[in-house]
Amino acid sequence: MSKGWFDNAFSSRARAETLLRPDLESGLLSPRDYALAVSFLPGPVRYLPYLHTAAWGALAGVAVLRFKPKVRFPTSIVGVSAATGYGAGIVHYFSEHKRFARQLEDREAFLVVLDNVNRRLGNTAPLFPQVDRDRIMERIRKRREEHGEVLDAGVDIVTDINDSTDSTSFTGTPPPTDASHEPSARQKSTWDAIREANARASGRNSSWDELRQRHERQRTAGRVQQKEPVEIQDPRAQAQAEFDAILEVERKAANAS
Predict the structure, then answer these.
(1) Phi/psi of residue 214, nearest 5 degrees
(2) How many separate helices (H) and strands (E) can be counted in the chain?
(3) 138-142: long-range contacts, CB 8 A cutoff, minimum separation 24
(4) Tens-of-pLDDT digits for all 257 residues of the chain?
(5) What is the DSSP letter of 161?
(6) CA nearest 6: which of 82, 83, 86, 93?
């Protein structure tokens, strides 16, 4: 665990409150420790290394300017002083964190809370590999029971944060979209546009279109009427008519003779 991790996790008070609130609601983090954490972690302590760097570098620069004729390599002196100041700032930074840790009511519980925060940020590796998390949780439960306190059932969910918290809400990474729905959405919008265009076109039919459609209907009706007389008749009726015609011709011929 490094300064960079703390700076990224608790970059603002609002972010610290968001990351720590699930453990506060589950009872793992006490209200007093929650208030201390959201006030201290995103506070001015984050800037201690940079303040020391600037202060040490500035002091070295003033000294170099004051004794410039007698000092060799003034730039190197200022650079080394600034680097030394940064190291001193890191020491000061972690000493302040130790002081903060001594003020906590339950430091073991806070270790579990920090590990939960690490998981909420999307990190799969444990923040404290050397710590037995399950054993710590068991000790925390026993201490709470001795004081008549019971952890909320939600603390089990916090223990396995992957099942309960969406890490994208803290990392800022948007969840992946399902690209399979995009073509259907585009196709649907296209067909909707076609149908709307057809509907608008059908509502604006001109008088010429109506005349043309009426003429087409009349031509179709005339063709149907012309085809009706020439439709093929029943073959037996046609044969009977031909037979009757032959008989009539023979009758007329017999009468004539």
Answers:
(1) -65, -40
(2) 12, 0
(3) 139/108, 140/28, 140/106, 140/108, 140/109, 140/112
(4) 678 888 889 999 999 999 999 999 988 999 999 999 999 999 999 899 999 999 999 998 888 888 776 767 778 888 999 999 999 999 999 999 999 999 998 888 999 999 999 999 998 888 888 888 888 888 888 887 776 776 654 454 444 444 444 444 454 555 555 544 444 444 445 556 656 655 555 555 555 566 566 666 766 666 555 544 444 556 666 767 766 776 666 666 666 65
(5) G
(6) 93
Contact 90, 3 (CB under 8 A): yes
Residues 95 and 91: their CA atoms lie apart, in Å, by 6
Number of residues in the chain = 257
Q: Are 115 and 147 spatial neighbours (Cβ–Cβ below 8 Å)?
A: no
Q: Are 48 and 92 in contact (CB under 8 A)?
A: yes
Query: Rounded distance, CA 112 to CA 118, Å?
Result: 10
Nearest to 28 by CA among 102, 97, 115: 115
Positive or negative, the CA dihedral 111, 30, 28, 15 is negative
**CA end-to-end span of the chain:** 137
Rounded to the nearest 10 degrees, the angle between the axes of helix 107-120 and helix 31-40 is 60
Give the count of alpha carbons within 13 A of 181, CB side only.
3
